[in-house]
# Entry
Amino acid sequence: MAFFMLKLSGPRPSFPGDASGEELAAMAEHSVYWKSKAEDRLAIAVGPVFDPAGPFGMAIVDCADPAAARLLADDDPVIRAGLGFGYDIFPIPSLILRQA
# Structure
């Protein structure tokens, strides 16, 4: 197991407050995508973060390696749509998980 945090940045600092119809449609597909990754047990947690410096999305994923985490990020519909979203990927060297 290798854990990574994927940080999704919006296309501009004012997003999502001024999201276009096209961006909202891509975000709907983004939600479906990450729900499927959670069902596949690749995504541990996914959701928005309301940082005072600006909101962003985050996903904690369980992947074989950094390349697999990058593939998950690159296959996200908001990335494939080419609307200016971007992911930064950070390794998590140790993670305490609650028991099921």
About this structure: The chain has a mean pLDDT of 95.
